[in-house]
Amino acid sequence: MRGWWREIAGLVLPVACGGCGRPRTELCPSCRAELEGPGPRRVRPRPEPAGLPAVHAAAPYADAVRSVLLAHKERGALPLAGPLGSALAGAVEAAAGRWDDRGRGPLLLVPVPSSRRSVRARGHDPTRRIALAAAGRLRRRGWAARVVPVLRQRRSVADQAELDARGRFANLAGALEVVAGGERLVESGRVVLVDDLMTTGASLAEAARALRAVDPPFIPAWNGEVGESRFLRPVAAVIACSPSSFDLKRN
């Protein structure tokens, strides 16, 4: 209900740019350009957690990008899912480019799940909403893409905001699982884990672990031969991550 009311309110109430506050626009050209950034890039947090997939991000988490993400996630600026989804789609394309083939099954965007508590508090699931927008943009670009929310939290976790990297890894260890039957949903495509933001990489590493936990040991690989499982080396895409993760010397 809260999400429905926010969408109606957005049609009748004055709007301001989610990045800089400029009136009468949801996202001004300057902030949109900052969100799109110089182009998606392979990024790595420091320290890099074991099991973290190869991650591509659209922009550093700073200034207008930070404001836009918070406006969508915490303040219910739901129309921002469109431009955020466009930025995520670019990062997904960069990640999927590692396969270099559009003909081997659809792109399956697997969102890192939010807790039920946070979804209730916000009135919407921001990552899933952005993933749906990204999938729509990818389809318009010629990709077969869809969202498959096959991950869920199997136990409660603490608020991550005040935890350091080590605390986040411990907090999330073993916290996610694949829903019953979820492994069948991802058998026919190429999985890209997606999230709005990467800080330490703990969430993406745990999501990749949960997928591997149900992965059969021997299935056809992407080259059509029996060999390495397709989930052993997943890829991931996010809208933003810390500026230090964009350090060119480490990429």
Biggest sheet: strand arrangement: 1-2-10-7-3-4
Major β-sheet profile:
6 strands, mixed
Q: Write the H/E string, N to C.
A: HHEEHHEHHEEHEHEHEEE
Structural class: alpha/beta
> What proportion strand?
15-25%
Shape, per Cα inertia axes: globular
Measured as a percent range, the helix fraction is: 25-40%
Taking the alpha carbons of the first and last residues, their distance comes to 44 Å
Average pLDDT: 81
Continuous helix count: 9
Protein name: ComF family protein
Organism: Streptomyces lateritius
What are the SSEs and their pairings?
Elements lengths: L1 H11 L16 H8 L4 E3 L10 E7 L2 H12 L6 H16 L10 E5 L4 H7 L3 H15 L4 E3 L3 E3 L11 H8 L3 E3 L3 H4 L4 E9 L3 H12 L5 E2 L5 E2 L7 E7 L10
Parallel strand pairs: 2-10, 3-4, 3-7, 7-10
Antiparallel strand pairs: 1-2, 5-6, 8-9
